[in-house]
């Protein structure tokens, strides 16, 4: 009996994930429920309807209740299928900015923000990879690079973030480090001026409990429309020019709950200093062909990766903005590599056994 209950649960999971069709789900559920209720039920399955409730086998009170399964499979219920589309960019994976002092970088990104140094990769003094959910900051040791804009970061223990930031203030005295509590976020500057905007988990970021939901770049006035065309026509991404109370910007979908924003500003921009972002794309060869045809490939890295720097307007070829993109295929060996994330609230004082780790996502339906 226990084995049959397990089969029913697995079938229900497969149906919820869209792995089996509705007709096949109904057929197999009829057979399983009939078998579960004995051979007599099997002989009369064609005449006897499936029980209204599944007698507690799913562990879901809503489904186990009489008529629960029927409600799940409501005829005529409609869904916004377009809301599930991602476009060609399936993930924004890391932001790379060089830092001259690994100790100060660790104080800010690990002790302050509450993120996690990758325990397996880049563990020496020449580089540091810092895990933020399923994303990372890459921090090679060199003269500092500063992203022209800011990086959005979701932190799971948002309430304790100001306290952690306060504890590193003295150690980072004499650097550009500072932080301020704003309406709905905490804004922090790293020791070399990279701006990080921190948020609590929110439905606008999907299921992300900790991670990098977006990067926002400052771009010249008049550039947003052409940048949106570039991402749409050259990379095959979902992209559009939009406008809010702060002005015009290009919005690019860069994964589940992730975006690239290019916000127009009339402030002078600092010269580009070679910082970069890394993205995974589904159609790997198509954008490569279009970029190569316009002379935009800056590096042929390996079988799974290439890079480009200049973002142009496809209409006239004008360079609108420069930021290096490390572009990887979904066959790249590091795609969906599991990342270790710690619980930054865990401490020796009041230690909670079993609470060392942090899940990157919250439950969602």
Give a structural overview.
- The protein has 365 residues and is an alpha+beta fold.
- It is 22% helix and 27% strand.
- The chain has helices at residues 2-16, 22-36, 39-43, 61-64, 68-72, 102-112, 161-167, 224-233, 285-293; strands spanning 89-96, 116-117, 129-132, 135-138, 149-154, 178-181, 186-189, 195-199, 211-220, 239-244, 247-253, 259-265, 276-281, 297-302, 305-312, 319-329.
- Strands 2-3-4-1-13-16-15-14 form an eight-stranded mixed β-sheet. An eight-stranded mixed β-sheet has the order 6-7-8-5-9-12-11-10, with helices on one face.
- The chain is globular.
- It starts with a helix and ends in a 36-residue tail after the last strand.
- Mean pLDDT is 89; it is low at 39-48 and 50-54.
The rounded Rg comes to 25 Å
Largest sheet: 8 strands, mixed
**Share in helix:** 10-25%
* Order of strands in the sheet with most strands: 2-3-4-1-13-16-15-14
Main attributes of the structure:
alpha+beta; 9 helices; 16 strands; 365 residues; eight-stranded mixed β-sheet; globular
């Amino acid at each position: 009996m226990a084995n049959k209950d397990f089969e029913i649960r697995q079938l229900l999971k497969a149906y919820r994930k869209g792995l089996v069709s509705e007709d096949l789900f109904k057929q197999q559920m009829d057979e399983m429920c009939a078998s579960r209720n004995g051979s007599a039920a099997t002989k009369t399955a064609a005449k006897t309807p499936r029980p209204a409730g599944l007698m507690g086998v799913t562990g879901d009170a809503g489904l186990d209740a009489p008529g629960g399964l029927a409600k799940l499979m409501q005829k005529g219920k409609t869904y916004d299928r377009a809301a599930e589309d991602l476009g060609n960019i399936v993930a924004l994976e890391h932001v790379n900015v060089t830092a001259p002092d690994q100790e100060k970088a660790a104080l800010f990104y690990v002790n302050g923000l509450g993120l996690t140094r990758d325990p397996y990769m880049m563990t020496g003094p020449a580089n540091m990879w810092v895990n933020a959910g399923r994303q990372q900051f890459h921090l090679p040791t060199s003269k500092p690079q500063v992203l022209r804009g800011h990086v959005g970061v979701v932190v799971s223990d948002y309430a304790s973030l100001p306290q952690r930031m306060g504890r590193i203030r003295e150690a980072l005295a004499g650097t550009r480090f500072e932080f301020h509590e704003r309406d709905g976020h905490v804004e922090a500057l790293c020791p070399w001026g990279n701006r990080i905007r921190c948020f609590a988990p929110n439905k606008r970021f999907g299921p992300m409990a900790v991670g990098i939901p977006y990067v926002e770049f400052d771009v010249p006035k008049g550039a947003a429309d052409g940048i949106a065309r570039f991402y749409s026509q050259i990379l095959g991404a979902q992209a559009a020019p939009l406008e809010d109370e702060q002005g015009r910007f290009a919005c690019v979908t860069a994964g589940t709950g992730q975006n690239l924003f290019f916000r127009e500003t009339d402030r002078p921009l600092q010269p580009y200093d070679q910082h970069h972002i890394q993205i995974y794309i589904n159609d790997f060869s198509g954008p490569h062909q279009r970029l190569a045809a316009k002379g935009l490939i800056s590096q042929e890295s390996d079988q799974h990766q290439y890079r480009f720097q200049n973002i142009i307007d496809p209409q006239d070829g004008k360079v609108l903005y420069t930021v290096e993109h490390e572009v990887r295929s979904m066959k790249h060996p590091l795609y969906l590599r599991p990342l270790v994330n710690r619980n930054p609230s865990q401490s020796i004082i009041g230690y909670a056994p079993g609470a060392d780790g942090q899940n990157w996502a919250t439950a969602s339906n």
